[in-house]
Here is the input.
Amino acid sequence: MRLAPLSLVAALIAAPAFAAPEAYKLDPSHSQILFHYSHLGFSTTYGMFSGFDGTINFDAEAPAESSVEVAFPVSTMLTGWQARFDHFMSPDFLGASEDKTVTFKSTGIEVTGEKTGKITGDLTLNGVTKSVVIDATLNQAMEHPMEKKPWLGFNGETVIKRSDYNLGMFAPYVGDDVTIQISIEAVKAE
Here is the structure.
């Protein structure tokens, strides 16, 4: 059966509209980035960033159309030892001023399972931008039981080489591979 042109237009207008991605703001009180690396093979050294800003444009119907953008000051790093923090902020590593930031902006998402995906994006650290892939898991997407607002929770993990970002002092003795673990919550933007 062939539709007349006016019937075709009417059918397209009546068709359900595709949902667009919805903006979510990261909850800085429940979003952390942990990192760890080998210290001479004797121990694993840990650090953390917390309290950062970011936006997730989440498309529940087409997750591959989602995106994420995050930025935070390098000086928000927590190491558990002031001398280590001071050394990381020194010219030996980050040469960090108060306004020096780390940024991540997604460039693509590959859905790998019902709640998993690979988020590819540009990580800018220490003035160097490189593409990284984060293995991500959607933990939950629902109304927050206390806030009564739409909420998201994700975990992710990737490994970078610190020498790729001009942070390779003492490598390979101090591990060049840095494992980054991400746990974030985000609230739907109003």
In short: The first helix runs from residue 5 to 14. The chain has two helices and ten strands. Residues 1-17 have pLDDT under 50 and may be disordered.
